[in-house]
Amino acid sequence: MQRLYQARDALEAQLLSDFLADRRIETVVLGQYLAGGVGELAAFNFPVVWVVEDADLAPAKARLAEFLAMSRGPERWRCPRCGEVVEDGLLVCWNCGEPCPD
Ligand SMILES: [Zn+2]
């Protein structure tokens, strides 16, 4: 099993899991119901989507990029320099510092 993506919330994790299932990529979502103990809390704050078959990881990553582009809301934009999705009205890319193209 390979870790694919840490979702923002349980809904996004489920949408991604369904999206991949439609494309014959089997995933499981872990972490969303686990409260976690001291020291584990941060790890379990967000649900993580895992690809069940290791061989599906590469195609799953390609689909993930599609999924993120589709689900991008008005507050999110894709960095033209590094390709990261930047959220919450940030004026520069959190990853590389490129200014928002708008
Ligand atoms: Zn960037």
Topology, please?
Layout: E1 2-6, H1 10-21, E2 27-30, E3 48-51, H2 57-71, E4 77-78, E5 85-86
Antiparallel strand pairs: 1-3, 2-3, 4-5
The structure holds zinc ion (ZN).
Zinc ion (ZN) binds next to loops.
Structure, explained:
The termini are far apart. The chain has helices spanning 10-21, 57-71, and strands at 2-6, 27-30, 48-51, 77-78, 85-86. The protein has 102 residues and is of the alpha+beta class. The protein has two domains: 2-71, Alpha-Beta Plaits (2-Layer Sandwich), CATH 3.30.70; 72-102, no CATH class. It has a three-stranded antiparallel β-sheet, covered by helices on one side. Strand 4 (77-78) and strand 5 form a beta hairpin. The mean pLDDT is 84. The protein is elongated, with a radius of gyration of 15 Å. Bound molecules: zinc ion. Residues 79, 81-82, 84, 93, 95-96, 98 line the site of zinc ion (ZN). Zinc ion is lined by residues 79, 81-82, 84, 93, 95-96, 98.
Would you tell me the overall average pLDDT? 84
In the predicted model, the low-confidence regions spanning at least 5 consecutive residues are: none
> Which architecture of the largest domain would the CATH scheme give at its second level?
2-Layer Sandwich
* Global morphology: elongated
What is the terminal separation in angstroms? 39 Å
* Percent helix: 25-40%
| CATH fold title of the largest domain | Alpha-Beta Plaits
- DSSP E strands, number: 5
Largest sheet: 3 strands, antiparallel
Ligands in the model, by name, code or SMILES, are: zinc ion
Write the H/E string, N to C: EHEEHEE
Strand order of the largest sheet: 1-3-2
Tell me the name of the CATH class of the largest domain: Alpha Beta
Rg over CA atoms, rounded to whole Å, is: 15 Å
Structural class: alpha+beta
Number of domains: 2
